[in-house]
From TrEMBL:
UniProt keyword annotations, A-Z: Membrane, Transmembrane, Transmembrane helix
The name this protein goes by in its record: HEAT repeat-containing protein 3 isoform X3
Organism name: Balaenoptera musculus (Blue whale)
Transmembrane parts of this sequence: 133-153
GO molecular function: unfolded protein binding
InterPro entries recorded: ARM-like, ARM-type_fold, SYO1-like, TPR_SYO1
Similarity comment text for this entry: Belongs to the nuclear import and ribosome assembly adapter family.
CDD domains named among the record's database cross-references: Syo1_like (cd13394)
Listed Basic residues bias regions: 1-11
Top-level taxonomy: Eukaryota, Metazoa, Chordata, Craniata, Vertebrata
């Protein structure tokens, strides 16, 4: 088995056709053995002589793999080895749906499934597909049945130009699906990354990226993939030539300002940051400025207002379209009905083909797609800034391993004794990054993102099922901003943070965020993020002898909620906050009762130094 790659922020599993259905299947008590029936039937149909039957089978598997209880049965029946060859099927439609099924499998299956896909040699047909499709995308060899065979549609129903457009769209859709499979697998398997390096996949995906002006969706998928494979991959960095860097630069500096392009430029900025070690020192400042300029522009946009405006635009567009359709029906009358009857079969077949591309939102959801692109860009921008600020701190897994070991108590005690409550080593920033962060007002913009999501935007999303998932995205942005805030408070001088008064205002802001939610302990992600920010703030305030703005009672309320949390990050933050609070209170008069309360919070995992008492 390969080793999964550790990241500061792990991408949540993405289900292309909606939320992963594992939870629903588990709630219904679905037995994995029950899924062997449809799985066996669908897998058998993959070998059917009819391209349309193979296409239907791939589409069925694309839906089935989203049900986690079905995965063991599919693994037993070697689904990957049966789907893999279909990436090179004579039919474009089969290639596309097979790639979609593998994409869903890699997105919903997790690390073990992705690594097993590498073991089952999915990379061989995948790389071959990417190379073959590239020749068609670049040189427009859209020969349909001559090169690839039937597209799965009745060619007699389309004119030559329509057939050409259909084939071109299918080929680019296949490329998009294949790049997403590659991205998912490389994110979960270091062996896949090694194959990516050895097979020259970098050159392939960069050529796809170079077409960003004509296919931004494909370019975004490539940018996601590149951001993943360039992280901690010195072998790949050696392969980047000047022309390759120029492709990235062209995409990052594109003048187009649509929300999809904003996401593309943000992802490419993250990739270029990963390449900083190969950028000449004389160009470092210029590149860092360009990266942070883009991130600053992304964070400057008001996500809540954008959600409200885009939803209004969608509502108006749908209303106008309905009125236009009614008008046409009234004008054309029976002729329109007759045309519908004549086109009934091809229309249905086209709609069915779109549902087979299970990972794409319907084209009519363009406002939703654009809004998601902006929210994703803002989340990505915040994650890039955190990674810019990160030192080699222990990962959550390392904290968990440490907290369960015999040495954990001694480690906690020594850390608190030596650092006055600061568990992690101080961070450091290069002069170029430090200057760019302050010049582009990044701290101020991050502070603004720590607020709760716009209540009107939340209400708008909650009343529409397709927009409801955006509420979680907006909350995730808030949590990422709080983690960013933690890094910046730890890194920047007090003066660059606005001085002591600004830190006191920040403390009041964080306490208001925390205690405005009576059930804050139930929101684990939020609790971890805000406790991280508070830990950094309290440490900075204590080290500069600035009066604490949060009362001991407030801090103890937070610690009571966090000390027994199942989240290791929350517990780590609470330990540090207790240490900082104790060291500050020990220097003041009349704090004995509060110090005794601190002692009561100590659990067997959190032994504090006797100096707290």
């Amino acid at each position: 088995m390969g080793k999964s790659r550790t990241k500061r922020f792990k991408r949540p599993q993405f289900s292309p056709t909606g939320d992963c259905q594992a939870e629903a299947a588990a709630a219904n008590g679905t037995d994995p053995e029950e899924d062997d029936g449809p799985a066996a039937e669908l897998l058998e149909k993959l070998q059917h002589p009819s391209a349309e039957v193979r296409e239907c089978a791939c589409a069925g598997l694309a839906r089935l793999v989203q049900q986690r209880p079905a995965l063991p049965g599919l693994a037993r029946r070697d689904a990957v080895r049966r789907l893999g060859p279909l990436l090179l099927d004579p039919s474009l439609a089969v290639r596309e749906t097979a790639a979609g099924a593998l994409r869903n499998l890699s997105a919903c299956g997790g690390f073990e499934v992705c690594d097993d896909m590498v073991t089952k040699d999915v990379m061989t047909p995948l790389v071959a597909l990417l190379k073959e499709v590239l020749s068609c995308v670049l040189f427009h060899l859209i020969l349909g049945a001559v090169l690839f065979g039937s597209t799965g549609l009745d060619s007699n129903e389309m004119s030559p130009q329509e057939k050409k457009d259909q084939n071109r769209n299918s080929i680019e859709n296949i490329a998009n699906e294949a790049v997403n499979v590659l991205w998912n697998i490389c994110e979960c398997s270091s062996r896949a990354v090694s194959i990516f390096n050895k097979e020259g996949c970098l050159e392939i995906v960069l050529k796809y990226l170079s077409r960003f002006s004509t296919n931004v969706d494909l370019a975004i998928s490539v940018a996601y993939c590149l951001q993943t494979v360039t992280e901690d991959n010195p072998e790949l960095l050696k392969s980047f030539s000047a022309p390759a860097l120029h492709v990235l630069e062209s995409a990052m500096l594109s003048p187009v300002s649509s929300m999809e392009y904003i996401l593309l430029k943000t992802l490419v900025a993250g990739t270029i940051w990963n390449l900083k070690d190969i950028i000449p020192s004389k160009s470092q400042a210029e590149i860092i400025n360009a990266i942070l300029k883009i991130l600053s522009e992304v964070l400057e946009m008001d996500a809540g207002e954008t959600v409200i405006q885009m939803k209004e635009t969608e509502t108006q567009r749908i209303k106008t379209a309905a009125q236009t359709e009614d008008t046409l029906q009234n004008v054309n009358g029976d002729d329109l009905i007759e045309d519908d009857e004549m086109e009934e079969i091809p229309h249905r077949r086209k709609v069915r083909r779109k549902t087979f591309i299970s990972d794409l939102l319907p084209p009519t959801d363009k406002e939703l797609r654009e809004t998601i692109a902006l929210l994703t860009a803002q989340q990505t921008a915040l994650e890039i800034i955190v990674n810019m600020c990160c030192s080699e701190d222990p990962t959550d897994d390392e904290w968990e391993e440490l907290s369960s070991s015999d040495e954990s108590d001694a480690f906690m005690e020594n850390s608190l004794s030596e650092c006055g409550g600061q568990l992690l080593s101080p961070l450091c920033l290069s002069h170029e990054v430090h200057t760019a962060l302050t010049n582009y007002l990044i701290p101020k913009k991050i502070f603004e993102k720590t607020a709760f999501p716009n209540s009107i935007a939340v209400d708008v999303c909650s009343r529409n099922p397709s927009w409801k998932p955006l509420i979680r995205k907006m909350s995730t942005i808030q949590c990422r901003a709080l983690v960013c805030l933690q890094s910046l408070v730890s890194l920047l001088d007090v003066d660059h943070l606005g001085g002591p008064a600004a830190l006191q205002t920040l403390a009041q802001h964080l306490s208001q965020l925390l205690f405005s939610q009576p059930d804050f302990a139930k929101h684990v992600d939020f609790l971890e993020a805000i406790s991280s920010a508070l830990r950094a703030l309290l440490q900075t305030v204590a080290s500069k002898n600035i009066p604490q703005c949060m009362t001991p009672d407030q801090l103890l309320t937070l610690c009571r909620a966090g000390v027994h949390s199942s989240n290791v990050g929350v517990r780590v933050n609470v330990v540090s906050i207790l240490g900082i609070t104790g060291s500050v209170l020990a220097k003041e008069d009349g704090t004995l009762d509060t110090l005794k309360m601190v002692k009561k919070l100590k659990g067997p995992q959190f032994k504090l130094n006797c100096y707290l008492l």
